[in-house]
Design a protein that fits this description.
The protein contains 11 helices and 10 strands. The protein is of the alpha+beta class and 350 residues long. Bound molecules: adenosine-5'-[phenylalaninyl-phosphate] (FA5).
Length: 350
């Protein structure tokens, strides 16, 4: 029996030394330690031994079993380690200090167009103002000559908070605050009010290729003595020729907004279809881009400015639509989609 144990130990060691893969190692384990394995078989032979012999033989077989099991698991670790080293050696060498090949980030087309407009108006002496997205009913409507229950509110249904405030439906909502901010400099120092205020607007809107429920406008106002429609037309023309840098067809037609008198709709010929009509322009060939007009006396009064002494113009440029026309985006919803693949094509060098 002693002899058998010695032989088995030697046999296992010889086989382990030869093995170089996990599958062979598993076969060795089964051949020696499995239910019908050689070491397990030794235990079955114990029934022929005396009680005294059984005790010492059983102890020796168990020692052999533990020893073989330990050797197999050590060998398994060695093989795994070798496998990892082999895989690492097979990998191509690379320079960890090389810059990663990542997609370059880009500005959103609306940001690009907004910055361009800001640059143009700043160069003409306008300040750029920031304004809250959550405003009061007074700011968004009442101060703009739109009392409660006025039908003009229907066009600008928006999202209301429980405290009565609302998400602004138009950047005109900042007009009153701007007049109040700059009126003293106008009245006491003769400094004209020249401000633009871009911002996000919200409307409870059925969306289509040219309407979104969240979009950007850029409001502009100028107030001084003797401001007339000619001033308004000059600034509108300059802005459009600077943004598009090519001839575009524009039309000015009467438009009604309670906060301007007279009021105009400034449309541009659709640059997606060249004026033939398509979903982007509701098949009319024209796109409403920048309503404008002379500021209503009641609105100036609400801002603390005497309409007998001062006049002014205001406009509400549809920035999102401008981005569509400038970059040939057929569907306004693509601009809010967050689809990086389609938005990244507008990357510029800024
Ligand atoms: C206004 O919002 C007025 N506050 C503009 C104004 C300012 C008039 C100052 C006079 C003086 P309107 O609702 O038409 O007007 O919107 C102005 C522009 O915003 C539109 O011409 C259009 O370009 C854009 N716009 C309006 N609604 C949407 C919408 N749902 N999705 C995308 N753009 C829109």
């Amino acid at each position: 029996m002693e002899e058998k144990i010695k032989d088995l130990r030697a046999a296992v060691e010889a086989e382990l030394a030869k093995t170089d893969n996990a599958a062979d190692l598993e076969s060795i384990r089964v051949a020696y330690l499995g239910k019908k394995g050689s070491i397990t078989d030794l235990l079955k032979e114990m029934k022929n031994l005396s009680n005294e012999e059984k005790k010492s033989f059983g102890q020796k077989v168990n020692e052999l079993k533990n020893e073989v099991s330990e050797k197999i698991s050590v060998k398994m670790q060695e093989l795994k380690q070798k496998e990892i080293e082999k895989e690492l050696n097979a990998m191509p060498e690379f320079d960890v200090s090389m810059p990663a090949k990542l997609d370059r980030g880009s500005y959103h087309p609306i940001t690009l167009v907004q910055r361009e407009c800001e640059k143009i108006f700043k160069s003409m002496g306008f300040t750029v103002e920031d304004y809250s997205e959550v405003v009061t009913d007074y700011e968004c409507f009442e101060s703009l000559n739109i009392p409660k229950h006025h039908p003009a509110r229907d066009m600008q249904d928006t999202y209301y908070l429980e405290n009565g405030q609302l998400l602004k439906s138009q950047t005109s909502a900042a007009q009153n605050a701007i007049y109040k901010k700059y009126k003293d400099a106008l009245i006491n120092e003769g400094k004209p009010i020249k401000a633009i205020f871009p911002g996000r607007c919200f409307r409870n809107e059925a969306t289509d290729a040219c309407h979104e429920n969240t979009f950007f406008q850029m409001e502009g106002v100028m107030v001084d003595k003797n401001i007339s429609i000619s001033n308004l037309i000059f600034f509108m023309k300059t802005m459009l020729s600077e943004v598009f840098r090519k001839d575009i067809k524009v039309r000015l037609r009467p438009g009604f907004f309670p906060f301007v008198e007279p009021g105009f709709e400034l449309d541009i010929s659709c640059l997606i279809c060249g004026g033939d009509g398509c979903p982007s322009c509701k098949h009319s060939g024209w796109l409403e881009l920048c309503p404008c007009g002379m500021i209503h006396p009641e609105v100036l009064k609400a801002g603390g400015i005497d309409p007998e002494e001062y006049t002014g113009f205001a406009f509400g440029l549809g920035l999102t639509r401008l981005a569509m026309m400038k970059y040939g985006v057929k569907d306004i919803r693509d601009l809010n989609s967050g689809n990086l693949k389609s938005l990244s094509q507008f990357t510029d060098d800024e």
